[in-house]
Amino acid sequence: MADVPQEAVNHTAPGTPRESWLDRLNIALILALLALLLLGWQWLDSRQRNADLELTLSRRLGAFEIHNKESEILARQAQEATREAQAKLDLLEQKLAESQSHQIALEEMYQEMSRNRDESVLAEIEQILLIASQQLQLAGNVKAALAALQTADGRLQRIDKPQFFTLRKAINKDIEQLQSLPLLDVAGLSLRLDNLVAEVDQLPLIPGRVSGAEKPSPTGPRPESFWQRLGTEAWQDFKQLVRIQNLKKPELPLLPPDQAYFLRENLKLRLLTARLALLQRNEASFKADIKAAEDWLKRYYDIKDKSVHVALASLQQLGQSRLAIDLPDISASLGAAHTFKLGREKDGK
After folding, report:
1. Mean of the per-residue pLDDT values for the chain?
2. CB–CB of 116/141 below 8 Å?
3. Residue 216's pLDDT is what?
4. Where are the domains of the chain?
5. In sequence order, what DSSP letters do the residues of 235-304 get, joined into one string?
6. Which residues of 70-102 are buried (b: 16+ CB within 10 A; e: fewer)?
7. pLDDT, mean of residues 258-269
8. Which residues lie closer than 8 Å to 327 by C-beta, 6 or more apart?
């Protein structure tokens, strides 16, 4: 048997170190190939992902550009709207300034009108208060003075302004003073005197107090002849020359017809004088005239007659009337009006 070289035997023998090395090399190659394949797959996958990402980004960029263009359009529209709004705002500010100037002018005009109105009202109130003072102090007419003060207070009440409060307070104080006075019905008393004056001609005289017929009516006497008139006058003169009187029983002398007429006229005059004294609040003169008229009724008129009795009772009631009233001083309201007027004039200056 031929001898085999030793080196050949070493290459063919299993389990030798050389074969182990080759196996390892093959495994390494396989692993490298697998790693290469894995890297290729990862590269392809990354590339695909990048492509998808780029596509998504390109889409988003396109949408962003569209939105950006729309935003630019909206921004331009907003700028135009802002400019229009600013123009309208400027116009409104101009109109507001004009309105404010007009309002200031109207307020000044209103204040001027209000000032003139207040001055007119104050002058009117002052005149009313002056009339009230004159009616009370000169004529003693409490009712007229009270009506004037109430008119002034009502005028101020309709205006209803705080600056007139002090003046109204003074007027109301004077009104309370007048209302506290005893009531004197001057108009009623004057009317009763007028009725008595009208009834004087119908009141009958005491029977037998008038000699012959009373004074004829204003139509005039009936025409008489010269001899009849002469005889009548002679007879009247003769009756005046001779007068018979019983001194033990004094009686009033007979009144001739003309004196009966004058008696009635004088009685009317007394009543009219009493009426004048009533209006002047002259209590002494009023009572004196009433007393004289009452005495004349008792002396010359038939007190048994109903009309004379009623007239006499009316005169007695009138004689008990009290005219002398302590009139209060109502100059406080007039002084308050003067003070208020002076204050406004100083403020105006």
Report:
1. 77
2. no
3. 43
4. 95-182+332-348, 184-215+251-324
5. HHHHHHH-----TTS--PPPBPHHHHHHHHHHHHHHHHHHHHHHHTT-HHHHHHHHHHHHHHHHHHB-TT
6. eeeeeeeeeeeeeeeeeeeeeeeeeeeeeeeee
7. 83
8. 136, 137, 140, 142, 181
